[in-house]
Amino acid sequence: MPLTTQTIGPLTCQIYDELPPGQSPKIISIVSHGFGAPGDDLVPFGPEILRRTPALAEQIRFVFPAAPLSLLEMGIPGGRAWWMLDVAELNAAIASGNIRDQRNKTPDGLLEAAEKFREFVDALHTESGLPFSQIVLAGFSQGSMISTEVALNLPQPPAALVIWSGTLLCEQRWTSMAEKTEKFPIQQSHGKQDPILPFEGAIWLKDMLEQNQFAVDFSEFMGPHTIPEIALEKFGSLLTDLTGTD
Fold first, then answer.
1. Locate the Phospholipase/carboxylesterase/thioesterase domain: which residues (predicted)?
2. Domains, the chain
């Protein structure tokens, strides 16, 4: 079976590929889920991308880490989180329609989660033998934020960063890291009707990255907090470009 479960560093992962036995991938794509989702939430992206672009099957390995925190005590069996959220505060903001400006916030637990995620990326890098320049960091919502934090802080740039429904956090920290790091391609998508992470936050993130000379392929769409078809298409195109696959 092309789907296996493995512990890499501190995190348990689902790994999906269709590589011939013994063949190493050209690109590893780490895809991180959002708050409240199970660790295998985004696993269907692997076979879907390879169905659309069969030539990628001999080039790509997808790795889907489960976030370290269980949400069982919050009444979400199977749900995971990279760090805890104040759900009551979030629900109140959604109900009031207020924009959640988190630019100056470093959420409690973010840096601890980033340390675990970085350990996981380092272990994957060592185990696979691939340089960071052949590892893509992609994520949805909270998973995109942990991916952004780590991508900006790697010792060498990743192959790319993919941000689905993310936002700008800890602006001073991220701006400082963005100024210093080597540049890499970034894809970003966000719904204009997102009640959870408002569209404005995505624009603030995009602007910060572009002001620091990153090329951001930004897709806005009329929709809520989700990953749209256009984002999946562009993700497949990005992987095709990175592998040199026709």
1. 29-234
2. 3-243 (3.40.50.1820)
